[in-house]
User: What shape does this take?
Amino acid sequence: MSRFSIVRLATSILTGCAALYLPAVSAMAQPAPLNGPKPTDEQWHALVGATVVPSPGESIENATIVIRGGMIISVVPNAAPPEGARVWDATGLTIYPGLIDAHVPVSAPRPDPKLEGTHWNEKVTPQRSALDGPGVSDKDRKALRELGFTACAIAPEGGIFRGTGAVVLLSDPDESPGAERREALASRVFDEVSLERNRFGSDQYPGSEMGAIALIRQTLSDAKWRATSVAAHERSGASMPLPAADALDALAPATDTLPILFDTTSELQALRVAKIAREFGRSAMLLGSGTEFRRLRPIIEDGLPIILPLDFPKAPSVESEAEAEAVDLRTLMTWEQAPTNARRLVHAGATVALTSDKLRNRGDFAENLRAAIKQGLTEDEALTALTITPATLLGVADRVGTIEAGKVANLIVADGPLFEKDTKIRDLWIAGRRHEMSKPEDKTLAGVWDVIFGEADGAIDGTLTIDDDNAITIKIEENEVKARSVRMDGPRVSFLADGDKFDYPGVFTLSGALRGDVIAGVFVDPDGDRNPWSARRAKAPAADDADADDAKAGDDDTDGDDKDADDAEDDAKDLAPEPLVTPLGAYGLAEEREAAPRTIAVTGATLWTAGPDGIIEDATLLVSDGKVVYSGPSAGAPRLAADLTIDAAGKHVTPGLIDCHSHTGISGGVNEGTQAVTSEVRIFDVIDPDDIAFYRELAGGLTCCNQLHGSANPIGGQNSVVKLRWGAERPDDLRFEGAIPGIKFALGENVKQSNWGDDKKTRYPQTRMGVETIIRDRFIAAQEYAQAMAAYESLGSSARARTQPPRRDLELEALVEILAGERLIHCHSYRQDEILMLCRVAKDFGFTIGTFQHVLEGYKVAEAIRESAIGGSTFSDWWAYKFEVVDAIPFNGAIMHDEGIPVSFNSDSDELARRLNTEAGKAIKYGGLAPEEAIKFVTLNPAIQLKIDGRVGSLEAGKDADFVVWSGDPLSTLSRCESTWIDGVERFSLESDARLRADAQRERARILQKLLAKKDKGGKKGRGRGGPPGGRDMVDTPPTQAELDYQSWAFEVLRSGGSLDDHRCGQCGDFLDLTLYMTGH
Amino acid sequence: MNTKTRRRVALALPLCIGAASMAQDLMIKAPEQSRPIVIENAEIHTVSHGDIPRGGLLIVDGAIDRVWKGATPDLGAAYASAERIDASGLRCYPGLIGANTTTGLVEISAVRATLDYDEVGEMTPEVRAAVSVNPDSTIIPVTRLNGVLTVGVLPTGGVIPGRASLMRLDGWTWEDMTVEDDMGLMINWPSMRTSNSPWVRISEEEQRKNTRERLDKLDEFFAQARAYAAARQADPSIETDIRLESMAGVLSGAKPALISANELEQIEAAALWAEANDIRAIIVGGRDSWLCADLLKRLDIPVIITGTHHVPRRRDSAFDEAYTLPVKLERAGVRWCLATDGGPFQTPHERNLPYHAATAVAYGLDHDAAIRAITLAPAEILGAGDRLGSIDAGKSATLLLTDGDPLEETSTIALALIDGRRIDLESKQTILNEKYREKYDQLRRQRTR
Assistant: This one.
């Protein structure tokens, strides 16, 4: 029997015997021969006299807890201990249920990659169990026990599908030969899944967060398919066995009803994984990130229980102006608010279990918990989150979590309230075994003693004061000396005293022992003579001493009061402000916002409709409920009692600008570049609504963008069309409802990895010939896949029951949608040959391309593009940055336009996206377009290309009220954007920006002050949050070549004052991905 | 000028040149000015002394001979044969100066063989840009298109990347193009800010130590150069060290040091270092220079702002942080000019220099100050204020006639002169435009046939 099954067996025995715990020996399934006599340990104990907190909020005074065979037999107040039990006096102490850490990662062996049933991706190992490995390490076990943990959930570390967790006791394993592992309380308590990705530069899938999500989605789908296949196979009676698929079998829905525990590294991931759980109808829990407070409401709405780490960012260094300059407000606010996270979640109704996982130093847990309590988490809530809640979430609430008869005897014996700073844990009882954690402080000799040195005539009287810290002061007449080298051991004491003050130069060595109420001993004087001394507790202290004592006692009290007062003051100062803004940091918006005006009239403007009416002087734009109701000459405007009237006389108004090629607001990698074909990955899985670039782009009049996958592979990922709804609660709130799905394709140097270094020469394709082949091959596969699916669907129900279904392939599904005209290709392309190639592929497979992106040689094959694609989305004037763009010309847009192609100018850059209006102006300069046509390059035409022109792109009645007010001609380099509106809601204005700037400056100054004040008190400093995902191993493993390349590049850029965000145009994430990776986005 | 007209003009050019090949500009260089030129009835923006609503100028032997207001005076018989250009409706500006480029040192930033801006070594003062400026770079005619006629070419990389050169953007050889062979010594001031970013694997303490070491090396190098100069003075038989020899200009004060610095500490440190070492400094970059404007003003250290089209440095920085740096320096009274951010990736886009200036105007800078920032100001800062940057008698006839404000994209250049030579405003790009317009004309003709 394997070790795993032994444990399972032991577990089932444990489960069956929960109420009547039997000593392990009698339950042992396979007793091993003993070496020596048979030991007996009845483990029968009674803890008496303590205050017992059986569960949070309850308390039993003077209780007696009887334990036998590892189980709690009874908890009764004022009861005598049973005869025969070993009695432990716990008078004055408090007993709490043992804490449960809901998540401790442990190493577990990986399945052999050569085995048939092992998943192709090494990060998919759901068949692993945390119990396969050695379990909690000795170091961790000790550290956990010091914090009061008696049990924990263990989970296999590393990977995406990591395997199943188990609940174990934190007792020391019995190392004797043949001994059975008996610490497991439950196995298979959750499937752990993370969004882990491979390091930048790795060619192992997934290299991005969206890739990890795609892999999760495909694997869960595969598990369903596998179960259906197995059933069909059995019914079919086929003699040939199905190939093994251990990973999928482990996830088979029929047998696997475990909740998925998603390990998250950000609050946005919490929302992402909740969506996956909903998609597959799986119950789920979160292993939290600690930043849930940044998106509290949607996380509460999603309702997933959270196993929450108390990993607070360290205080950023801000001691010099330069250091402070490097820290942004979001980092500062995250630092300040992190301790409020637990309280915010609990008070908002989340089910929260706390864990000491994810802390750099597990020992910080207690201090961080106190910080959380200071920020409003009650002690009862904390205790609940460490006992009942984890027990319930892990399905072991019938065995652990409270102090009740019939439960496993997991107890904390503490000398005070559990979460207070000075409280010490005396003993930890784990399954009825005592672990001594600390001894009571030895105060046997503390007090004031009347002392006599020497004998009879020569005797000298004095006072000996021994304080609680065992410091000794000797006072003879008015002279005081502090004793040195004090050693105390119960009733025995020894110390040294300098005789100089007593006119006896030299050192006295004293020792003595307490017997009855007298300390008697000898001292050796500097001459080497031995003399006796004795001391008796002072009865009525002398008058002046009494004063001193009173004063001292009083001091203690006053100190205490002062300290409390100080603490209270500190507390008040330390309390983090309550309302938060979204996104957290500068320019975030308060939750409670003024209701947007329902009706708006923009009057007197020069209106660039980008529609058939062209440019209208003295025009009026009327908006109602987010829609344009009138757009035309003021003279003909209907009367409307507007909630808000904007006098735009002298100003210009255009539709909101649309960027048909953006990489703004994408978390965890823009490229899934590890494979040549990744049509299964979806940008909209990883929208980052907090990207500050969105705000800056709003300040340039942008209202909508096409978030594209990078150009690292011929068939990239699915796109996401979003409106820049800055301040939205959920990432999905940005999505352009009903926009036709799209996908990124790419051709040329990037997909051939031409500029990636000489080590990148093995991935197919390395030539433009290969690029065509890959694309055609995948489309053929998609056609055949669709046929197979259709054939299966057409089967009768009985035939279908016996037929293995084709596997749902999310990669091919996206391509089938292209073939069906339901998904638009946006293809990164430069040279005319490759552009023509894709046109011919589209023709052969009978679909229309959405856009050619960049398409810098589009002017050479405009007739082909016109025939095969909706449009071309190009740069105004970028060129010469790599070989395939040497023939790029700024007339490209105008030529394609003149040849009848809808043309847009895009940014491909967070910097350029802020000024697309003046990019459009270049269509006038290079090609002589009329202004009313040029403006369409960044409004109507990208809308046409994205097939959202029914809703946006021009200001016409019935369309969305996405518009921009400009100080002058929008195509003029001298104009600026004054306000930007989306769906009739102001998302940017110069006025609100000024306000938000002032707010940010104030907040910044306040938090910096707080930090600086702390520094004087020796506060810790260190790195702020913002480390890369999986940062745990970043520090330990050597950097990849790509990371090194990036570092030297980034170093040069930063050194020369540049920004890593500048200059992305046409790079399509060449370096961007690592920037994101390295900065933890 | 409308596009159709320009296209016809272009077609009339010798198209037999054909499409330009990679990295090879096939435009004909401009011939020497053969006879005097009179530009009349122009709206003249002298930059140095205001605007002349209607006036003219006389150009003789590549230089502006005189400038006048109103109608053209009698120039005398000597100029009877002068070429007369009626500039009615046009504006006249000095040619724009791109102070910070790698023009001619890079053709395609992704192709290593085309890169000539970064020599091996941390201290390479001995290399100077002019000698490897490729006169036939395709980037040159494209750069001229919006009026940039003179550029500073700055080597990059290392602590002392080399010496910069000031180049006119036309000439058969790099010698023809050279305005100032040695424009100053480039220094990349070491970054003084520590980073706690996760990818920086060395401790902040170590980073500070590294910075100190780099600064010490810089000091030591200057000390060596001074010692070498003194030794050679005392004993001319000492062997030549070409590296230390090339420090002479900056040590004597004849040449400035162009110090690339963006962070506050860098700028302050560089400024104080220059003062202590009696070195004439120019700050290149100056992102945080507004924070130490008083110091720069007091030491009269000018700043070459490297572009306005940058994202803010920090998440909570104002969105218009880079847009407003020029107006902040202008108001603080610091000497400054505006360039682009230079570097190999930016160099092909130097033609957008005027639009960096325009953005500064949109966000508060006075329009005249913006024009000055890309004409006279860089000329003065780069030591060519006596020859370039304004419409003044005695200066080089490097100027533009435009149909509008050069800061506006919609304006086009009607005429560009470099030292009185008439510059071809076509480029590989305009030729490709014509070539493929012709393709579609052919297709249409086939269809109608």
The longest strand of chain A covers residues 184-194.
